[in-house]
Amino acid sequence: MNGKIFRLGNIDAAVFEKDGIPSLTIVPAGTAEQIVPGKQGSCSCLAQTHVRGVPHRVPYSKGLTMMGSETSLGYHLEGCGMDGSALLIRLRNENGLVYEQRLEPAGNALVCDSKLVNNGNADLTIEHVSSFCVSCLTPFTEGMAPDQLKLHRFTSFWSAEGRHLCESLEELNMETSWSKWVPKVTRIGQTGSMPVRGYFPTMGLEDTANGITWAANLAWAGSWNMELFRQKEDAVLCGGLAGFDQGHFRRTLRPGEQLELPAACITAVRGGIDEACEALLSAQAERLEIRGKAEAEAAPMYNEYLDTWGTPTEKTVREELKAAKDLGLSYFVIDAGWYGKSDDWSVSTGDWQIRESAFPDGLRVITDEIRANGMIPGIWFEAEVASNRSDILKEHPEMFMQDDGKTIIQTDRAFLNLSRDDAQEYLDRKVISFLRDNGFGYVKIDYNNTYGIGFDGFESLGEANRNNTLGTYRFFDRMREQLPDLIVENCASGGHRLEAGMMQRCSMASFSDAHECPEIPLIAADLHRLILPRQSQIWACIKPEDTDRRIIWSLCGALLGRMCLSGPLQKLSDEQIRLVKEGVAFYKLIAPLIIDGSTKVYREGIAGYDHAHGWQCAVRRGNDRAMAVIHAFEKNGNAFTVPAELNGYRVAQSFLDRDCSVKLVNGNIEVNGTGEYFAGALLFERTRN
User: Fold this and answer.
1) Are 230 and 44 in contact (CB under 8 A)?
2) Sheet of 409-410, strand order
């Protein structure tokens, strides 16, 4: 073998040099010796970099990909070795450009931290640089590996986050050309400040013949790029900042300066995309900070938004609090509309003055009442923006992003330039001090638009985007540093910021804005591949006009993550409250599985999510217990069997629609119901012999 092999937890990392080009591949631990000779090295360098003005050696690539620059092909391996548990790789280019990469085991994956340093004597203008580049795929088959490679991606739109796409490389027209000369590329990415818009920053490549899947994700809340690249016989997964072609990124590094790149996570596992995504999530779980007893228990909560829809008052909060106090909840969150100089609070977004007509006695008296009733008080902010009619924009326009000297306005929002110290200090006063002074222990940070590719003040729009993204992280870090007990919820019109960098800085996130939609269980189950279920806050809106069937449907949807009740609880009947209590009690039984478990989703007949046909059953296992959450949509057949492979288990507890019956037979779940849109949940325990 013409490379060096390093054991990193459950993964072998192989660093090759072929024709002078250093490349990286990863495989499950113990399989590196099976890498075939033809895949021991690649024409794709592990540090894809482009310096402005340097030629591209890959033909027909301009505008298609920024891979294959002569900058990348000029690197040589300067050093490669272990530093404790981590692998350090150092490459150098003839012009003094140094690429350093650190691969650290975390869970069943590798956290990839990379940086670019100008150790030369001249300025170098960078237009593209990757956080990771894994090549030599598939390493276990000589040649093109026809009919065995599948690419996995996850689309995301408002109220439709995380839908899985799986296509063969043949379907994607990613077979190599007869000459192996021109490249083929499948590229995904996002431009702006909503990183999970269009796609999640996650890709996977599955080798069905060898039963191995490679996957990667990026931890970055700004513009990003990921791609599957193929020119020769190997496939290459690469990702990082959106380069100049996609994100108008250009940064001049002067001698001695460095550029730290977005963190990434990469893995290679035995199994399919479910196993690969669980490996990526295991790295997030290992680094997640758990704050307080409620987070340790993944406690349920209440948010009042779907009761008042943006018009909370002292009166409404007290009515809701009276109804919620005996349900066993840990958080009570006041959502949008608590602020403003008038009832039209949207014009005062960014000024953050308590709306006196709604809360004449202020908010401290309310938070004290919430705590007296055994819950932690929370509140909503859209901290990084301001109304185009706000006082702060009129008084300090310099703190806001501009395009060609004019304030960027998207719909009715202007955007704070968080690369500026004065903007950070403003948020310290208006958000962090407000939370402290008013006794809040929970904050929901929303973000309901994007400023686009970038703004004035930097040498490129992409560099502006990069600096503001770092400013966003800085604000979240400051909140948590200054308020050590604070619980932070990540929201961006629902799920537009469900990337690993934000999730690392928050206790949980709004999974979607599909507040009352019947397809909530489908979206929630999809997200088990992409964010930790313990961080996936799922709303169950309960209304007086809801039937028992609808209430159980909504509550069962919330069993797929962190349960968040909403709606006018104070208007529910005694029987409806009884059902809600039963659902919350069942949630608490299965919460340990939400915290630590492994999910497999079974579906039949599901094509469209709007007016879905068929059924879904999400089964989650952990230690000696398991749970199943069942939702039957339109045209479900009323009787179906879930091949759940639960041999050796028994039903310990259930929460079912009254017209739904469930039996466990030979490890399979047999479901019988009537009509459409019925749901139920089961808790299983392993039997003892």
Assistant:
1) no
2) 385-387, 413-415, 409-410
**pLDDT > 90? residue 57:** no
Instruction: Give the separation between CA 255 and CA 203, rounded to whole angstroms.
Output: 35
Indicate the CATH number for domain 3-287: 2.70.98.60
Show Cβ contacts of residue 246 under 8 Å, excluding neighbours closer than 6 positions.
187, 189, 191, 223, 225
Secondary structure of residue 247 in the 3-state scheme: helix
Dist. CA 168–CA 185, nearest whole Å: 14
How confident is the model at residue 342, as a pLDDT?
A: 80
| Arithmetic mean of pLDDT over the chain | 97
**What's the pTM?**
0.97
Q: Check if the beta carbon of residue 428 is closer than 8 Å to that of residue 437.
A: no
To the nearest 10°, report the CA torsion of 603, 607, 613, 614. Answer: -20
- Residue 167 sits at φ, ψ, to 5 deg, of -140, 145
Give bridge partners of residue 208 from the DSSP assignment. none
Tens of pLDDT, residue by residue over 120-147, are 999 999 999 999 999 999 999 999 999 9
pLDDT for res 89: 98
* Domain extent listing, the chain: 3-287, 302-506, 600-686
Residue in this structure with the two tokens 């790029």, named with its chain if needed: 225
* Domain 302-506, CATH class in plain words: alpha beta
Helix, coil or strand: residue 608:
coil
- Segments of 261-382 assigned E as strands: 263-270, 301-303, 331-334, 376-381
Identify each DSSP E strand in 19-139 by its residue range: 21-28, 49-51, 76-83, 86-92, 97-106, 109-118, 124-137
d(CA 276, CA 282): 10
Residues 6+ apart with CB under 8 A from 614: 603, 604, 605, 606, 632, 633, 635, 636, 637
CA atoms within 13 A on the CB side of 656: 17
Contact 439, 377 (CB under 8 A): yes
State how far the alpha carbon of 402 is from the alpha carbons of 244, 417, 453, in Å. Answer: 20, 9, 12
Helices (H), 237-330: 244-247, 273-287, 292-296, 305-308, 314-324
**In 3-state terms, what secondary structure has residue 512?**
coil
How far apart are the C-alpha atoms of 381 and 449, rounded to whole Å? Answer: 14
Higher per-residue pLDDT: 515 or 455: 455
Average of pLDDT values for 171-190? 94
With a CB cutoff of 8 Å and minimum separation 6, the contacts of 59 are: 181, 182, 183
SS3 9: coil
Percent of the chain with pLDDT over 70: 100
Q: What is the pLDDT of residues 612-640, one digit of tens each?
A: 999 999 999 998 999 999 999 999 999 99
Tell me, yes or no, if the two domains 302-506 and 600-686 fold the same way: no
| Fold (CATH) for 600-686 | Immunoglobulin-like (2.60.40)
pLDDT of 1 over the 70 cut: no
pLDDT at 44: 96
Token reading at 330? 């840990």
Confidence of residue 689 (pLDDT cuts 50, 70, 90): low
Q: Which of helix, strand or coil describes residue 470?
A: helix
Contacts of 608 (CB under 8 A, 6+ apart): none
pLDDT per residue as tens digits for the range 368-416: 999 999 999 999 999 999 999 999 999 999 999 999 999 999 999 999 9
Token pair 């039903």 is at which residue? 651
Q: CB atoms < 10 A from the CB of 289, how many?
A: 10
